[in-house]
Amino acid sequence: MNTRPLIFVFCTLLLVFAVIKAGAAAEKPQLVLVTSKESTVQSFTPAQLRKLFLGLSNRHNAGDILPLRNMSDERLYNVFLQKVVFMSARNYERHLLARVINMGGRRPPSYTSHTDLVRQINADPNSVSYMWKITARSTPGIKVLQKLW
Asked: How many H-runs (helices) and E-runs (strands) does the chain carry?
């Protein structure tokens, strides 16, 4: 019996599986917390970060921190809400509105333009936001504070 065709099929399947797995790993985006390169802001615990974007606290080692909502990419925004804030977009918006009505203050500013977001981050070294790691790497003036997801 000739086993060459069987070995060829097995090796081909193994190669196809390896290529698919490598492609899937390369496609998985990473969510990161970013700030200005001039910022002295350090990393946050998950609880601190959640409270910051819920409007419950803006104090940190660097002083008052301004959280900026990056709404330039719907998927990015939803991943951030699910993995960091643990809320749906609808519940998050309700929470922010109720907080403003009941306790005063402001909702974290939101930016639908990546350019405007980066401009604000660079204008205020105590501001933080989130973006895909690949985007942060290619954006001048931005530094990654920590991986979020």
From this structure: 6, 8
- CB of 111 within 8 A of CB of 71? yes
CATH number for the domain harbouring residue 97: 3.40.190.10
- Vertex 31: Cα angle to 38 and 112 (nearest 5): 75
Assess if residue 134 is contained within a domain: yes
Q: Does any domain span residue 20? A: no
CA dist., res. 133 & res. 143, Å (int) = 10
Extract the runs of DSSP E, i.e. beta strands, from 73-149.
110-111, 127-132, 142-147
Q: Which pTM was predicted? A: 0.79
Please count the structural domains in the chain. Answer: 1
Helix 46-54 vs helix 89-103: angle between axes, to the nearest 10 degrees?
70
Q: What is the pLDDT of residues 17-55, one digit of tens each?
A: 554 554 445 568 999 999 999 999 999 999 999 999 999
Q: 102-130: per-residue pLDDT in tens?
A: 988 889 999 999 999 999 999 999 999 99
Strand partners, 15: none
